[in-house]
Amino acid sequence: MFSQLHLIWSIMRGHRLRYGLALCCLVLATLINFGVPLIGSATIDYAVAGKTLGPDTPVLIRLILRLLGGTGHLHANLWLAPVAMVLLSAASGLCSYLKGWQAALASDGIARRLKDELYDHLNHLPARYHDRADTGDLVQRCTSDVETTRQFLAAQVMEIGNALILAGAALPLLLSLHVPMTLVSFSLIGPIVVYGYIYFRKVKHVFKQVDEAEGALTAIIQENLTGIRVVRAFARQDFERAKFAAPNARYRDRSLHMLRLMSWYWSLSDFVALSQLGLTLLVGAHWITTGELTVGMLFAFLSYLSIMLWPVRQMGRLLTDLGKTSVALTRIREILAVERESEPPAAAPPARFTGAIRVRDLQFAHASQSATIAGAGALNGLSFDVAPGETLAILGPSGAGKSTLMHLVLRLYDYTEGSIQLDGRELTSLPRTWVRSQIGVVMQEPFLFSKSLRDNLRLGRGDAPQHEIEEAARVACIHDTILTFEQGYNTLVGERGITLSGGQRQRMAIARAVLKRPPLLILDDALSAIDGETEAVILNALRERRGQATTLVIAHRLSTLAHADRVVVLDRGRIIQTGTHAELSAQEGLYRRLWQIQTNVEADFGRELKPI
């Protein structure tokens, strides 16, 4: 338990002063609250029952009577006692409010910092981590786990302090009033505390199971909503419902198990707490008949016991929430413990990248591939050069390593063997931020954010003026389409750009990359969803910009590659052909076979469409 408390203490940094103020307010509220039963006890015994002050009268009772004007004045003005009790209760309530306010400010500040740290950290984690991570589980950790922590810090931390203060202050106070009655009143509190600790040890791992089950459920929901159109297209609603039923039932069963344990705790703790009140009342009534205890003193003990029993009963709940919070914080810290993308030692990057690329004996293997078997990696000894302003086309079958090469250039992954140099400087020695700022890229699956078209285009250049935005849109043949929308460039697109067609999303991604004005432009199968006529217009526009940027073009349609200065053909991570379109079309090899297949298919398709 102490390790959990230390973990809680560590995340309170920067807000411990507020918790200190909240604790001071809590102490004041407790001390003020303790005065209410004393006023009642003194009034019953000395102002109503007429008991006289003697040497055995507790010091606190004497002090209360003196503050209320003495026994005679209190007897003549009994209204003073309830007024004083109400005023003390109001003062205690004000202190409790201040305590809750300070704790809420601190807990919300900590939750905000945790969310900021998690969001920033996730944006700087290596691509390999995101390849393996479950998006739903990450969302669960960044939302539900942080909220669990916030709720504990807002309420339960103060409840722990309240229980400790009550135990530390009430015991000496009650001992000063009547030692035997104090022993009777505390006789069953010990077992409640012990049972609460055992319950905490039992329920901690159960909550972890519930949290993991909820994370799995969130992951399935997130995946299903993301691919809802695929689910409907294949009429897989029933299958998805059946797939969802199993983890949903698992989450229900684990939650019910948690609730069953909690119901046992509350039932037993209620029984013990009521037994403690009953025992105190019975023994106190007996001692009143024997003259060993007064009615006012029994009233005070029953009042103090009622004040104390609730926080003591809450200890099981507090320990349970402590277990939940420790599990939640452990899941959060598992993310924060993952090392960020490594950066080279601080060094001044080049002022501007000219676009010269040199690749030598480049080798790379994904985590699922065996790097120990020669030729089994995604890239196996690539070597080529790209001059500034040159357009290099890369062709190859699926799995040849084309996109992997682009990911290495973007430093989404780092190679371990071979070399990539930009303007003569090793890629891994350059800051990732600088490298990516010099590259405009169109991914295979273009991603648009749920913002306006203008904001999506400005992703790479937030300060781009409107006329440059429109110019880039014209290059990508999307400007006229945008003008047909009711709100033009202010049109909001749906999540992932779903309100646009596949070709429109690709053209938006091309315009976004062109607007950035990068020294290096990467088009990774960027025209696959665009019709042939629009493709020709875009290629002509890019051809007119030739020389302004080094361009790497990946495509499966050879018509897209025909305008390139050079073509590199990959197969199984190796270069098997290189040359211009004319040279490769004239020599035997994969490029010529693909060119013949595609031209024959297009010719046959054209004849089929020719009207009779």
Query: What distance separates the N and C termini?
Result: 85 Å
What gross morphology would you assign?
elongated
By DSSP, the count of extended strands is: 10
The top-level CATH class of the domain at 2-336 is: Mainly Alpha
Annotated CATH architecture of the domain at 2-336: Up-down Bundle
- Overall pLDDT level: 82
Helix content: 55-70%
| Main pleated sheet | 6 strands, mixed
Strand order of the biggest β-sheet: 6-7-8-3-9-10
The stretches of 5 or more residues where confidence is low (pLDDT under 50) are none
Assigned CATH superfamily of the domain at 2-336 = ABC transporter type 1, transmembrane domain
Query: Total number of helical segments?
Result: 22
What's the Cα radius of gyration? 37 Å
At the third CATH level, what is the topology name of the domain at 2-336? ABC transporter transmembrane region fold
What share of residues are in beta strands? 5-15%
Class computed from helices, strands and strand pairing: alpha/beta
